[in-house]
Design brief:
single chain, 571 residues, alpha/beta, 8-stranded mixed beta sheet, 8-stranded parallel barrel, 16 strands, 13% strand, binds phosphoenolpyruvate, binds magnesium ion
Length: 571
């Protein structure tokens, strides 16, 4: 390891947010993999081969047994990963491959290493989740090698003070059973957001950063500050400042955890904090979060694998489940947003060169009016059966005429009608659109995609599809102001509503409800509760005056930080 200068910052992929500070620790040495040291060039005499197979099988069995024992003393994801690693140690294919090599004369350590290499190459070729299992396989190999060579079991040391565990990659058997009181963060040189390290860090609730390429420059014992939200590792920071930052972040997490709603600013301005759901199960899960209802029920997600159109009865059953999860509360049901990234088999989409700009969302009703009619019948039936009054909105509306036609169909069934604002044309003509409906909900995911002409699925264009784009904020401002003039609700139901500071900006622009993944609700609600409506308005003005998303984010955040009265964790 080479020395990294104090104060230097390494960067990786952020996986679990939060701050942590402590000395770095590295896992214990792994056995030497040098083929010579493992006996790759030695040939066993015939009569020693079967006993060597037995010795190998016994070592693998011992390792599997230990892992299984630890699994039975753990719970949740830790127990599952330990059991899965034990399964690898007993895998018939792997044991068979190594035994075959031993029977050809290879000593057990060399055979175990060679068999692992074969499987690792195969897993790497398969890619994705299989490739991420290579770490588990190598971990099993090292444990079996240590057993065969009479070495101590490799793995993570027990820290004697709160420490940050650094590693090349962490195998499940290393991370399972970690105590978050002494291992306060995980950082790996390899791994991805779905690696076992990430899963375990999430379960333990400790900050985690992966894919930090220069990590080996940090020697054991070096104090480090981990920011799991930004994905940074600060080497040897000023201790008092680092500890103060960690304390503040812990108090903030406690305040967020203690926030139970309803959504309102510090001076009592109400903003509903709502959940996005996909079906009855996710609606029931959402009831476990501090949300006041559902701001977006993406109905198409309930039918992605359906070859035929579900009957009105069947649809009504699914919608009923969602309405029953939030009795007497607001539920906004969106009609099928079929097409583009969410094609539905029963809609018979034509091949299109550019499906995001094609026949998607409400546009399918032009050729298939009966699909929309059946769905509205089913929503009305579910509403009647549950005594609910859902709001119903259409996706991908582009004109006042489309909005009026949809509203007429919804109102004919006695329900409240709205449309999504996802297409810039609708934001530009917001007063005319709002005149036709009872409410609108801004889908910032698509509104940003269409405003910036940047595919929302493209990783390369992520800086363009940032919802903090001032151009997008300007369009939202137009819509919210039209809503205020006409006295009609304007919600936001794209992922922008999940960002606490952006949620304050949206509130300052005049947005009346914020709906996103329910897990984001407490962070959004707690931030709103710290600032006044005036501070939100000031933050919005500051963001609108900038030329790019980074500027907007920074301008709004500094206004909000200066104005915030931090919640006490006891709130
Ligand atoms: C949006 O576009 O912001 C939205 C909420 O709809 P979806 O993400 O389902 O396209
Ligand atoms: Mg959309």
């Amino acid at each position: 390891m080479t020395e990294t200068l104090a104060g230097g910052i390494l960067e990786g992929t952020p996986v679990v947010g939060g701050l942590a500070y402590g000395p770095a620790i590295w896992p214990g040495e792994r056995p030497d993999h040098d083929p010579d040291a493992l006996g790759a060039n030695t040939e066993l005499p015939e009569d020693q081969r079967e006993p060597e197979v037995a010795r190998f099988v016994a070592a693998a069995g011992t390792v599997a047994g230990r892992l299984r024992d630890r699994s039975s003393h753990s719970s949740g994801a830790a127990a599952e990963v330990l059991a899965a690693t034990a399964g690898l140690a007993e895998d018939r294919g792997w044991i068979g491959a190594a035994s075959g090599l031993i029977r050809k004369g290879s000593p057990a350590p060399a055979a175990a290493a060679a068999a692992t290499e074969q499987f690792a190459t195969m897993f790497t070729k398969l890619g994705g989740l299989m490739a991420e299992r290579v770490t588990d396989l190598n971990d099993v190999r090292d444990r079996v090698l240590a057993e065969l060579l009479g070495l101590p079991e490799p793995g993570v040391p027990e820290p004697i003070e709160p420490s940050v565990l650094l590693a090349d990659d962490l195998a499940p058997a290393d991370t399972a059973g970690l105590d978050p009181a002494t291992t306060v963060a995980l950082v790996t040189r390899l791994g991805g957001p779905t690696s076992h390290t990430a899963i375990i860090a999430r379960q333990l609730g400790i900050p985690c950063v992966v894919a930090v390429s220069d990590l080996t420059t940090v020697p054991a014992g070096t104090p480090v500050l981990i920011d799991g939200t930004l994905g940074t590792i600060t080497i040897g920071p000023d201790e008092a400042t680092a500890r103060a930052q960690v304390d503040a972040s812990r108090r903030r997490a406690e305040a967020v955890a203690a926030w139970h709603g309803p959504g309102r600013t510090a001076d009592g301005h109400e903003v509903s904090v709502l959940a996005n759901v996909a079906d009855g199960a996710s609606a029931r899960t959402a009831t476990g979060y501090p949300v006041e209802g559902i701001g977006l029920f993406r109905t198409e997600l309930a039918f992605l694998d359906r070859p035929d159109e579900p009957t009105v009865d069947e649809q009504a059953g699914i919608y009923r489940e969602v309405l029953e999860a939030f009795p007497g509360q607001k539920v906004v049901v969106r009609t099928l947003d079929a097409g583009s990234d969410k094609p539905l088999k029963f809609v018979n989409h034509k091949d299109e060169a550019n499906p995001a700009l094609g026949v998607r969302g409400d546009r399918i009703a032009v050729e298939n009016p009966e699909i929309r009619a059946h769905q509205l019948d089913a929503i009305a039936r579910a509403a009647a059966e549950t005594g609910s009054t859902p709001w119903v909105m259409a996706p991908m509306i582009a004109s006042a005429r489309e909005a009026a036609a949809f509203a007429q169909e919804v109102r004919a069934r006695g329900m409240t009608a709205g449309v999504m604002v996802e297409i810039p044309a609708v934001a530009i003509l917001a007063p005319l659109i709002l005149a036709e409906v009872d409410f609108v909900s801004i889908g910032t995911n698509d509104l940003t995609q269409y405003t910036m002409a940047a595919d929302r699925m493209s990783a390369d264009l992520a800086s363009l599809t940032d919802p903090w784009q001032p151009a997008v904020l300007k369009l939202i401002a137009e819509v919210a102001s039209a809503g205020q003039t006409l006295g009609k609700p304007v919600g936001v139901c794209g992922e922008a509503a999940a960002d606490p500071n952006l949620a304050c900006v949206l509130t300052g622009l005049g947005v009346t409800s914020l709906s996103s993944a329910p897990v984001a609700a407490a962070g959004v609600g707690a931030r709103l509760a710290e600032v006044t409506l005036d501070a939100c308005r000031e933050a919005a003005t500051a963001a609108l005056a900038t030329a790019d998303p980074a500027g907007a984010r920074q301008a709004a955040t500094s206004v909000l930080d200066a104005a915030a009265t931090p919640l006490s964790p006891a709130v």
